[in-house]
Structures are given as structure tokens and as C-alpha cells.
Amino acid sequence: MSARLIDGRAAAEALRGRLAITADFFRATTGRPAGLATVLVGEDPASAVYVRSKIKATEEAGMHGLHHPLPAETSEAELLALVEQLNRDDAVDGILVQLPLPAQIDAARVIDAISPEKDVDGFHVVNAGRLAVGAEALVPCTPLGCLHLLKSEIGDLSGANAVVIGRSNIVGKPMASLLLGESCTVTIAHSRTRDLPEVCRRADILVAAVGRAEMVRGDWVKPGATVIDVGINRVPGATGKTRLVGDVAFAEAREVAGAITPVPGGVGPMTIAMLLRNTLVAAHRRAGLKAPEDL
Ligand code: NAD
């Protein structure tokens, strides 16, 4: 039987509708829009596309997008000076420095310089620590989007066996923390994991965040499991073009899983929606207001 498709586009659209209402309320209450500052160093085409879509979504949600494009030869000191300026700017609630950065800039040092209260990517070590101890944190957008999809699909996750493939600071580790926070029994698998297919077959919830096209085969999936495919991989397609595929062999996994996210149209759209959400949450906290529970 074919799995249910988890429609990330529809979920993101619904969420963005709620975010727009909250953004209006924030503006009416405080007399200013919530503000997201984006910083792009250089002209990497993929990064430029990402940043453009983030700014567009910010404006569409009724927030203020302040974009700072910098030349590729920008020094680390110059970028740190801009981050400091944005930290002090009261109109800025969220700061997003688009990664990757050029080789002359140490990304970790830049992330460390962002005020944790404005760290809407959730990459600052203070936010990583807060998430790890279960305190109020700004959580990385992609795993937050995955959790939103899982809760809409399953409801109560407690007691489920969850396997996360990938241990990056951006996706794998925060995903595992979030699932633990939902009382799942969590396994983090990675490149050194022994017998990965067998580990995956124990998962009621399987999250793949690896970056290897269609690595997870259909017979790695437990019948009825919920599969969240974070991977975005470009592979050769028909007629000389390229196409996007996930880390999961979708056609095979779909025959076994209970529910599955497609690529594209699954996790991807949720990431930007969660960036808007984090910006609004940060704005409310900075203004001493309580953000709605369902954001
Ligand atoms: P990463 O390269 O930082 O981490 C990949 C992880 O996969 C590592 O922890 C590694 O141990 C593990 N891994 C590598 N090879 C493996 C193997 N053979 N078996 C098991 N584990 C293996 O990548 P990332 O930043 O976490 O991103 C992962 C994927 O998610 C990429 O495809 C990326 O493009 C995608 N991504 C998507 C979104 C989105 O919005 N949908 C956001 C971020 C990342």
C-alpha cells in the first residue's frame, strides 16, 4: 500500500497564514514591524536564491526584511562589525548570516558574535545549550519544521522509536534533542554506524539528514513508519536537466512507510516558515510580550 504524503507546502502555507496574523498583532501592539536582517557575503547563486526567498517571505508575512549584501572580499572584522551593529539595532529582532561564508571568514566566530536573543537560525552555542537542557531556546529552523510535520501527522510522539540519520549541528543533533523532548526513544545514526539498514528498520519515526541521494532504501523502512526526508540532492535527470531527490529512495520507501515527505515539497518549505516563526518569537521576547502558543 502506498504511504500518505506529508504535504510540507500546505503545512507551511497554513503556518505562514497564522504568522501573518501574529505579525500584524505585533506591529499594532508595539508600533513597529518585527524585523529580520539578512547578511549575504559574496554572490554564490544558490545562497542568493535562498536569501531572496527568505526576504520575500518575511515581507509577505508583514515583517520588515533588512538585507545587507556584502562583497566576496569582505574581511572577518568587517562582518563582525556589521553583526555588532545589528545586535544593537532595536529595529532588528532576528539576524541571519547566510552560510557558507568565504574562506577568509571563520563562520563559528561570526555565529558566536550574534546575540543569542536574535539568533533566529538557532546556531549559537547558547541556543544549542538551551535546547540540550530543555530550556527556552531559538531552535534551528529545519528540525523545527520536521517536528511540526511529525506532530501534525502523528500527534503524540511519546514512546516512539525515532532514528535520526546525520549528526550535524544544524539538523541531526537538534532534531534528536527535539524528539527526546517529545519523549521518543532516540537513536542518532551517522557515517560510522554499524548495520545502518538494521538500525533504521527499528524506527517508527525515521529522519534522514545525510546529503546522499536516495541512500535509504525501501527495505530499510519499518512497515507503517513515518519517514521525514531532509536531504536535498541534485542528480542528473531526463533530457540533460537535473532534478532534486532526497536521501530516501522515495518510490521504494513509499510502498512500505505509513507516511512520507516528498522532495521537493516536504521539509524544504517548512524551513523558511520556521525562520519567520523564530523571528516573531524573538521579537515578542525582546518586546516583553508572549507569543501565541501555537506558533
Ligand atoms: P552535513 O554534511 O553537515 O551532515 C551529514 C551527516 O550525515 C553527518 O553527520 C554524517 O555523519 C552523516 N552521514 C554521512 N554519510 C553517511 C552515511 N553513509 N551513512 C550514515 N550517515 C552518514 O549535512 P546537513 O547540513 O546536516 O544536511 C543534510 C542534508 O539535509 C543535506 O542534503 C542538506 O542539503 C539537507 N538540508 C536540507 C534543508 C532543508 O531545508 N530541507 C536544510 C538543511 C539541510
Number of domains: 2
Overall helicity: 40-55%
Distance between the termini: 34 Å
Strand content: 15-25%
Provide the CATH top-level class of the largest domain: Alpha Beta
CATH topology of the largest domain: Rossmann fold
The number of helical segments is 10
Q: What is the second-level CATH architecture of the largest domain?
A: 3-Layer(aba) Sandwich
How are the strands of the largest sheet arranged? 1-11-8-7-5-6
Give the overall average pLDDT: 97
Concise account of the structure shown:
This protein is α/β, with parallel strands linked by helices and 295 residues long. It is built from ten helices and eleven strands.
Any overview of this molecule?
This protein has ten helices and eleven strands. With 295 residues, it is α/β, with parallel strands linked by helices. The protein folds into two domains: 86 residues, 3-Layer(aba) Sandwich (Rossmann fold); 128 residues, NAD(P)-binding Rossmann-like Domain (Rossmann fold), CATH 3.40.50. A six-stranded parallel sheet has the order 1-11-8-7-5-6. It has a three-stranded parallel sheet with strand order 3-2-4, with helices on both faces. A two-stranded antiparallel ribbon has the order 9-10.
Draw up the topology in text.
Layout lengths: L3 E2 L2 H23 L4 E7 L3 H16 L3 E7 L5 H13 L5 E4 L9 H7 L11 H8 L8 H14 L6 E5 L6 H10 L3 E5 L6 H5 L4 E4 L17 E4 L3 E4 L5 E4 L4 H5 L4 E2 L6 H20 L9
Parallel strand pairs: 1-11, 2-3, 2-4, 5-6, 5-7, 7-8, 8-11
Antiparallel strand pairs: 9-10
Helix pairs in contact: 1-10, 2-10, 6-7, 6-10
Bound molecules: nicotinamide-adenine-dinucleotide.
Nicotinamide-adenine-dinucleotide (NAD) binds next to helix 10.
